Amino acid sequence: MKKMQSHIEDIYLNKDSKRSEAENIWWLMEETGELLRALRKGSDQEIKEEFADTLAWLMTIASNRGIDLEDAFWERYKSGCSKCNCKPCKC
Ligand SMILES: [Zn+2]
């Protein structure tokens, strides 16, 4: 993720950091809607593209907060389920 997030920062952070967080979240929600539509009736290629776009907006929002998503992910899920700490989850 670190490599993907820094790649997205190189492309968009200058532009995306000028937008409010609420606006960037709006774009994330719009991409999430496109992902849902693709999952329902899109081609395999469209589904892959919408997953990538949705992830890119999530990374942008994290970057604007100074959060490294890979670090955040491993901090939360390193030992397994975030609630029971088991892998696989036993909740
Ligand atoms: Zn669990």
Automatic annotation (TrEMBL):
Alphabetized UniProt keyword annotations: Hydrolase
Protein name: Nucleotide pyrophosphohydrolase
Highest taxon of the lineage: Bacteria
Any matching Pfam family: MazG
Any one GO molecular-function label of the UniProt entry: hydrolase activity
Domain NTP pyrophosphohydrolase MazG-like span(s) in chain numbering: 21-73
PANTHER family assigned: NUCLEOTIDE PYROPHOSPHOHYDROLASE, REGULATORY PROTEIN FOR BETA-LACTAMASE
Secretion signal, residue range per the UniProt entry: none
